[in-house]
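lol forgot to send this yesterday, sorry. struct tokens for the thing we talked abt
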């Protein structure tokens, strides 16, 4: 609840600013988002393989040649 009040207070005190975002900013944000998604996918895959190895009783946590 405190966060909602804080966000409402910030929104109420908002003032207009003169700012410019060049065209490269959008591609930089897109690159950061895609990089974050790729990193998240790798983390999910690593934990999935570990969980799968535990459930199946396999000795090796990762298949040969994998790096996680």
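and heres what i got for the seq, position by position
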């Amino acid at each position: 609840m405190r966060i909602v009040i804080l966000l409402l207070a910030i929104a109420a005190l908002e003032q207009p600013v003169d700012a410019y975002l060049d065209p490269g900013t959008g591609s930089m944000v897109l690159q950061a988002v895609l990089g974050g998604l790729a990193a998240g996918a790798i983390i999910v895959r690593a934990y999935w393989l570990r969980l799968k190895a535990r459930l199946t009783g396999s000795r090796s946590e990762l298949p040969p040649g994998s790096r996680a």
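Residues 23-56 form the longest helix (34 residues). anyway ping me if u want another try
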